[in-house]
Amino acid sequence: MRVGIIGGGAAGMMCAATIVEEHPDMEVFLIEKNSSLGKKVIISGGGRCNVTTGIEDLKLVLTKYPRGSKFLQSAMHRFSPAQVRDWFENHGVDLKCEEDLRVFPVSNDGHDIVGVFENIFKNSKIDLLFKHNMKNIVKKKNKFVISFAEGENLEVDKVVMALGGQAYRQTGSTGDGYDILEKLGHKITDLSPSLNSFLTQEKWPKELSGLSFEKATIKVKGMKKYQFTGPFLFTHTGVSGPAVFALSSLIAFEKYDRQNPLEILIDVFPDLSLDNLFEQLQKLREENLKKTFKNTLHNFLPKSLSEKVYENLDINIEKKNVEMSKKDLRQVAEYIKALPLKIIGRGAGDEFVTAGGVELSEVDPKTMESKVCPGLYFAGEILDIDGFTGGFNLQASWATGRAGGLAIDC
Ligand SMILES: Cc1cc2nc3c(=O)[nH]c(=O)nc-3n(C[C@H](O)[C@H](O)[C@H](O)COP(=O)(O)OP(=O)(O)OC[C@H]3O[C@@H](n4cnc5c(N)ncnc54)[C@H](O)[C@@H]3O)c2cc1C
């Protein structure tokens, strides 16, 4: 049997490795438009490659996928984060789990992850077809004919679509598969960038660019279901960091732009109630009655942010603590617990993943085989699956790639 796996990213590599390890005699073609494997894997996690998560409770892991968690259940049970870690370690890459439960190679080098697959393929009969840009797939009876921009055709019995989404297009994932899949009878759900930073209407975040908080809660005003707590950062165009990425994932399909901004509220003291914060400010005031409020606030908040507090609240910076009323302090506490910003867009082209993809009800979650076009399989981000940052997207690619690879058995 001949199998064509299109896409030499995380999902395609795992699918191919599974097949060649389980069935060394199967004829496998791994088709990749780039001249090497795993370009995105190598740059992932800032080049360190956050391979998977250290969270062991699968139920909890599945809550990290705004889309696709139910579909993923079966594949994740058979190739859980713990099993993914064992798999890489058994293939010679030592991994470490950091305090925030992200798992990386000990070397902090994504090349080592791709190196595992290169070694497996070097010692197998697989055909690696680099610089092969798939342009079309036609089903003829029980066979698939794959054609390439370079002009040749390849006939196979089974095809695995592992072309990724359309984020970070410079890595090769340019959303090529969607049209072809529609022609083969599949529905592609709405697509949207996810895991991105936000651009804000206000320009002042620029002055705080680089200022970060280990923990902040960000919520969309008036939409209770959209909130997330985690690391947060001001940038020269708005806000970013894991909490912002997670929120961007939750609101991936909400519409917002310059004319219709979405208001977000940032709480940089999520572990303190408003009353506690207010009491602390009062205590500071009483202990420093003769000092200016400005200096007091500088001891409480990073200077650049406290400057924005009295600017945005229009407090005279020379005002002494003794002149600050309870009402003034309450207003400051309320402001710090809900810094308002209007988001007007996403950082252009800087999203990490594509939300949306192949409609999951048309795919068998155990085998990854199409229910509408037998012999066609899927793996990775091309599916309507996406997760938060923290190793969840690669984990989904490993798990679906392995499920497809195990299902293609004769
Ligand atoms: C900057 C960045 C950092 C990230 N960091 C992390 C992280 O640390 N942890 C994590 O879990 N996730 C991370 N992600 C997300 C994660 O990398 C992806 O979700 C994952 O790589 C998707 O794997 P995939 O195999 O489905 O697709 P891809 O890795 O995108 O692979 C698809 C492959 O298909 C090839 N291809 C596409 N079209 C064609 C065609 N027509 N013909 C032939 N080949 C084709 C592409 O060249 C590509 O190599 C990150 C993403 C980005 C952009």
UniProtKB/TrEMBL annotation:
InterPro entries assigned: BaiN-like, BaiN-like_dom_sf, FAD/NAD-bd_sf, RsdA/BaiN/AoA(So)-like_dom, RsdA/BaiN/AoA(So)_Rossmann
Listed SUPFAM superfamilies: FAD/NAD(P)-binding domain (SSF51905), HI0933 insert domain-like (SSF160996)
Cofactor dependence: FAD
Domain RsdA/BaiN/AoA(So)-like insert: start-end pairs: 193-346
Domain (RsdA/BaiN/AoA(So)-like Rossmann fold-like) ranges: 3-405
Sorted UniProt keywords: FAD, Flavoprotein
Pfam family, one: HI0933_like
Superkingdom of this protein's organism: Bacteria
Protein name: Aminoacetone oxidase family FAD-binding enzyme
Organism (species): Candidatus Magasanikbacteria bacterium CG_4_10_14_0_2_um_filter_33_14
